[in-house]
Structures are given as C-alpha cells and as structure tokens.
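Thread: Modeling a multi-component assembly for a lab meeting

Hi all, long-time lurker, first post. My supervisor asked me to bring a structural picture of a complex we are working on to next week's group meeting, and I have zero experience with this. I have the sequence lines for every component (978 residues in total). Could someone generate the structure of the whole assembly? Inputs are pasted exactly as I received them:
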Amino acid sequence: MSTVETPAARRRWALVGAGVALLVAVLAGGPRVLAVAAVPPTTATPGEVVARALASADVPYVARGESRGDLALPDLRGFGDLAALLGGTTSTRVWWDGPRHWRVDAVDPAGERDTYGLATSVTTWDSGSRRLDVVVGDPSARLPRPDDLLAPQAARRLLAAVGPQDRLEALDARRVDGRTTDGVRVVPGDVRSTVERADVRVDRATGLPLHVEVVGRSGRTSLVSTLHDVAFERPDASVVTPPAPPDARRGVDRAPDLVARAATASPWLMPDALAGLTASGVDVARAPTYGSGLVRVLALPLPPRVAGEVVGDASSVGTAEERVPGGAVTRVGSGLLNAALVRDDDGQHAYVLVGLVDPALLDAMAADLLGDPPPPRTMR
Amino acid sequence: MTAREHDPARRPAPTTGGGADGDAVVVTRGLTKRYGRVTAVDDLDLRVAAGDRYGFLGPNGSGKTTTVRMLLGLVHATSGEIEVLGRRVPRHAKDVLPEVGALVEGPGAYPHLSARANLRLLDAAGPARGGDPLAPDTGSRRTRRSRIEAALEQVGLTDVGRRPVRAYSLGMRQRLGLAAALLRGPRLLVLDEPTNGLDPRGIAEIRDLLLDLNRRGTAVFLSSHLLAEVELFCTRVGVLHRGRLVAQDDLDALRGPTGRTLVRVDDVDAATRVLGLPAARTTDDGLLVLDDLPVPEATAALVRGGVAVLEAAPERRTLEQSVLGLTS
Amino acid sequence: MIGVELRKLLGRPRTWVSIGLLCLLPVVVAVFLAVTGIAPRPGQGPTLLSAVLGNGALFPAAALGIVLPFFLPIAVAVQAGESVAGEAQSGTLRYLLVRPVGRTRLLVAKLVSVLAYTLLAVLSVAATGYLAGISLLGNSGQVTTTTLSGTTLTPADLAWRTGVMVLYIGWSMVGVASVALFLSTLTDSPLAAALGGLAVLVSSTVLVTLDAAGAVRDYLPTRYWLAWVDLFRDPVPWGDVTAGVLVQTGYVVVLLGAAWANFSTRDVTS
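Re: Modeling a multi-component assembly
Sure thing. I ran the full set together rather than chain by chain. Output:
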C-alpha cells in the first residue's frame, strides 16, 4: 500500500502526531515538573521534621501504599511471605484511624490479605484460603507484616531508632503525590550498619511520612515505600471492622507465626550483651534486640528441629552451612539485610540473628553465643 | 429487456458549460501516478465524451487499472487533474460516484451471501440520494427491491435463487459484479476487463447489454487488453503503453487506410524488376506494396512490362497492427 | 452504513461460531468444577475461580476471568483485524468506496460493528456464565456471596458490580480492537492485522511483568486489564479501574486517529 502526500493527508497526520506528542509530553514530563515546581522552602530543622514524623501516629488517613524491596531472600519454610514482602513489590490499601484502629490490605490480582489492627488484637483475612485469624495481644517478636512496610510505619520505626551517633541532614522540599513534603536524610554513624543512607519525606501539613527510601552500602536503593492518593480523613468505622464471612475458616492464637512462637517458647535466658552490643526490647530475656541507633540485631532462639529445617531449606537454595568453633553458621544475606542461623554442636541451642548490619558483626555475635551458651531460664 | 426504473435516456444532456469539455464525462489533464520511483501512469490526457463507447487498451501492467482506480477516487494521483461527469475527483467523488457504475479488477462479493443479499447490502451502504436531482430515488430503500431485480435480469442472473456466491462460477460472479455496477442506473460505466471468465455466448450477451445501455445514453469506459473486444464494441480508443497514452482516436481513424496500396501480380520478381526498388516492396504473402507511386501509373508500368495485375486495393490496418505499431 | 455493518456482523455465521466457542470454555470449566468439586488452589488458576464453588452467582465474573487472558482478545483482534482488511481481501472494499461510502464513515461503521461484537461477546460470556453457574454450581441461596475482602454482597451489589465489570472488560477489549483496526487499515491481510494486534498484547503482557520496564509500565495497554478484580473488593478501589479506562481511551483515540489519518488518503489497490 502507499499513502499519498497530499496537504490534507499531511494535515491529518500532523493532527494525530501532535496529539500523541502532547500526550507523551504531559505523561512523561508532567509528574517530574510538578514534583519540584514552586515548592516553598522549609523553615523546619531536620530534628523538628523527625519529631513531627514521630508524633504522626494519630493522624488519620486513607491511602494506597506501594513498597518495593530488592532484598533477595530465599523462600524459607515457616517464614511466610517474608521473601516476597522484602524482595518484590507489595501494593496495599490503608485505612488508618489511629495506632489501635486500622486496616491494611495487601492486594494482588488474584486476591488480598487484609490485616485489621484493633486495641488488643490483630485480625487477618486471606481471600485465597478464606481464613480469618485473630491474634490476641502483641507478640514481642514476629515476622514483618505488610503494614510494617507502609511508609509512615517504616519511617517512624527507622526514625525512632536513630541514635546520637547517627547524622540527620535536611533534603530539599519537594512534592510527593501532589503534597508538599519536607525531607530528612538519616546517615548511620556506625560503619557496621549496612544502610548507606535513608531518606524520609514528611507531609508538611500533617507530619505524616509519605515516602521512605533506604539505600544500602552498595549504593543501590534497596527499599522504597510510598503512599499515594492520600486523603486525610477518618475512615468509615465499617471499613476498619473485620468482616464476618459465613463460610470462612477461623482461628484464634497468641502467636501469629514461627518467629513469634519461637520467641514465646524459648527456654533460654539470653545474655545482656553480645559482641559489645547491649540488649534491649520488650522481651529482653527471650527475644532481645542488641545494639543501639541503626545498628540493631534481633537475636531469636529457635527450637533445634526448626533450625535444622530452615538450614536444610537454605542449603537447598545454595547457601552452605559453615563450621565455626563450637557449632555451625548459615549466612543468609542480601547486602542490606543480613541474617545468620547459628547451631550449637550440643544439639540444643540454635538461634537466628537478623539485622541491617555487616555479616562480620553477626559472626562475632555467633561466636559469643557458641562460646558461652545461654543457660535455661529456670536457673535464674 | 424490461424498462428500467430510471432510464438514462430521459436525462437531458448536461448543460453546464465546462468550456471545451462541456459534454465530456471523463477528462484527465497531466494525470501522473508514481509508486516510489516507478511511474505507473505518466502525464495522461484522456477525454471521453458523453455517449462514447471508449476502449482503453493496453497490455497487462501498462497502468490501465491504476488509471481506472484514480478515476474512481480509490487511488490518489501524484499530480494532474481528473474530472468525472464535470466534477473534480477525488474532491467531489461523493457527488459524482452515485452516477457511476464500476467494475474494477474482478467482482467482489461476500461469499456466504446470495446475489440478492449482496446487492441489498451494497445498495444500502451507499447514499440514499443519488447525485442526480432529477432522479432523487436512485438509492432509496423504496425502490431497492425492484432495482435489484432489474439489474439481475439485465445480466441474466434472475434464477440463481438463494445460493451463496461461494457456489458461483467465475462467469456468474462477473455478471453479479456487472449487476452491482448497473444498480443505480449510472450515467457512466467504468468497466475493467468486464468479460473475464465469461464464455463466448456470455460475452456476446454482455456486449449487447452494453450497446443497449449506450444507445440510451450511458457512456461506457471499457478498459481491456483484448483487442478484439474493443474492436467489436468501441467507438473510440485510447492506447496506453508503459503508463503513457500513445494514441487516442476514433476506432475508424485508427483502422483507417494507410495511404499505401497493395497489388497482387502473377510474377512478383518480374514486377519488382519492372518498378525498381525501393519504390515497390513485397509483403510476406506475395503482395506488392506501393508507397508513393500513383496506382494508375504503376499498374500501367507493370502491364507494359508484361506483368499481369490481378488485384489492387488500398491497405487498411487492423487495430492490432496499429496498437502493436504504437506499443513496440 | 452503520446499519449495514451491523447486519453484516449479525448475518455472518462466523460471528456466532466464535461467540459460541467463547461461551463454551467457561461452561466446560463449570461442568468439571461441578462434577469433581475440586476448586483450584488459592492463588492458582484463573482469578476468582476458587471462590465460585457453591457460589454460582459469582461465576459470570469467573467466566470472564477465564476467557480474558486469551480467547476474548483473540476473538476481538480477529474481528477488528478483519474489518477493513477483510473487505480488501474479499474485493468488496473498492465497491463500497465507489458506491460511494465515505472513508471516515466506513471506518466509523466498522468501529461501531466491532464495538457491538465486543459487547455481544462479553455479554454472552457473562450470561452463559450466569446460567452455567446457577444450574451447575448451585445458586447463592444457602451460601451468601462474599467479596475478596470477606464482606457479604447483596444480589443488587453483585448485579451492579458484574455490570460494571462487563463494561470495563468490554472497554479493555475496545483497546485491543483499536490496535487491530489500525493495522487493518495498513494491510490487506486480515490475518496479519489480527496477529499484529495480538503481538502488541503479548509484548505488553511481557513488559508489564518486567520491573525493568517500570517507567512505561503504567501506560501499557494490558497494565490494568485485571483491575476488574477490584470490583469484587470492599470498598471498591476505583483508582486502577479509572486508570485502566483512561489508558484504554488513550489508545483508542490515538489508534483510531492514526487509522483515520492513514485510511483517508490511502491508495486502495486491493
């Protein structure tokens, strides 16, 4: 075929071409221009921005969240969606009435997993298995849930951990999802942290963190979480009330996952310090967190049988267990997040150590644990 | 032949004064079509008068079909002008085309439908009003059924029933294509190879039909590579060769006497000797060709030289000869 | 001309055969589900299918979910690819144009015909899905219908959500149709136009899953195809559905514009 170049034809093609060009220009350039155009500079200091962010837990809002991680973790039995949560994109819908009344849906094309936070319990609904589970109380340690990765939650957790040795820098104000935000950058002071820097963008009007970006030592952005379409309104009470599907399977438990069960059941009295880091946390005897500032390691005793299964799973995906004096260590890591599975040769002690820290620090802690195994709690 | 709904003969001749082309139904000026570097049609000046039976001759690939498509607004010219029925094409194609019936490069029909269903769809697709203010009903739904029956009868397809076109022979499809062209009683028929696939009897029938329509005032523009067809039917001939119009004249003029005389004698060798070359030459079948030698003097000279003159007649070209002469 | 095109569409055996085949697959699936009672494992198999066992009223949605990834786009692409190129191939395009039918008018009529086909196909699948669901999988008398979020749906809720879904999927298919319709004005081969349209879809499907293509992801034609699932969440998140409608509209406008610009002055040499 051929098309004749008449003036009319040229006019028609010009019309179509101009339409496409305009569309592409608006779509490609629009958001970028909007993000920086005419944002009034901030007067707040980084410290003030952090303080406002930390005080924002009561700000009610309804939004859509998206978090993206590239932490390549092996898919381990008992660790649920951890690998998918930290190693992929999670889309969420959030209805936040306050820290004791909220709902977060993790949605995918095939279904959704909804988490309802209430004053004394957390209810989860899984549309695929049609299960409604209620977890009573707040376990001292548990696996991350989709709501932990929400920008406001992740940002508050990160900023709350910032210690005196860490540095805060102000970032240029810019728009996130159409709202003016103030930015603050956290630079860890301890070289053992695997975090190079973390940027948090906080809504200027309400203090709600809208965007978090964690960059690892490799210079790669390892975790991004953003809120979109934020509406600062109190969600409808019916929306944040767990549903009562007639045909669902139901369960009530105190521990939602393997980690929580292990933490509750641990028979050992964990030491007060490991590799020079002191213990802290809600349940300092059974599942303590060692360290301060951004260098923090969760040390969790595991039942040896479970530890054996996890090591088996990890080695099946190519992570070898390494002999060390007194036991064996399996390292699972992804640059930003590192974990070590430690098994004592006595066949009774096993631990998992997790943190945004250098693997060498985990090795030192493992050596301490193997050299001086914690005593049973009954001996206290 | 039944009376047609809108007999073209009842239409008055066009009165609009278009200069010298006032009574022309097709005029092209400098019509050129290039596909990339290939020039398919080159600087064509056609003129078809109302009432003409115009034969558009040329070998395959000479640009006939491209020209026909340009006349109908299907292909857009690279340069040049086209006027059909006094109006510019393609700009006024929608005013002109209702009064033109066309058959281009074989018929086209939906194979799963019957002939009648095909014609009904085609007719319904066109504008309800024809371009002719004197016959506003040419496309109306009211007259559709009778127009379809009339067209089918004209081409001899009345008794095909409900068979789908898929089951038709090539000749029947060709007739259906012609029926589609005749559906609205056109003032101009543009037919590209209309007798393709027809048997000799069918060809004669169609020729009679076209002659009849032409007598009633329909101009016929017939594009063909078949010399015999054009020679039998047309009054005026245009010859296309490699995209150029190499001749456009009345058929009789193209077949006219050459000005030379052919003489049959009993002894050709003696005759050439008597007359002396190059004044006289011979044809393959033993005839003397006299170019500029006056016939009485030549015959007298031959008789004087003892050669018997059996026959002497002016030479006439066949259309084939003149076309081959023009296109070689 | 629009009436003529609709008559052509409806009078053509192929239209009904293709729609019949489209409806057949969900019925076969329903029969298997009803006979064996084995639902696909959660997260596997077509969307919503695990929820329809004993919940037949949800089956129209599941039926569309079954045909959406392949059969529906293929049927629509073939139909739209056929529109102009098919006329060219059967030799009828030139006769329509010299009848004369304006080229823009012809294109509009073809578009309306493709729209009608799409709507007819989607509605037929939904309707057979409903009948098959009710008769084979039992109706929602005993078991109430729930959303993906676990909340209960009244029949009225279910009806409007299914209705919006039918329209949304229909409009997504119009996006497919506009690609094939544009290609149909470029080539004289209906097959090439249909395959070209499908090639665009396959490329888009591949790119959507590719994180490296994140910059253009949201503008790909199949990006929001599955957003109709959102209609079965509670509350309904309208964001993706709206974005899907806008993206499809963008493609429809641009491609139809291109089809018009191309076809208006194209040399018809078929």
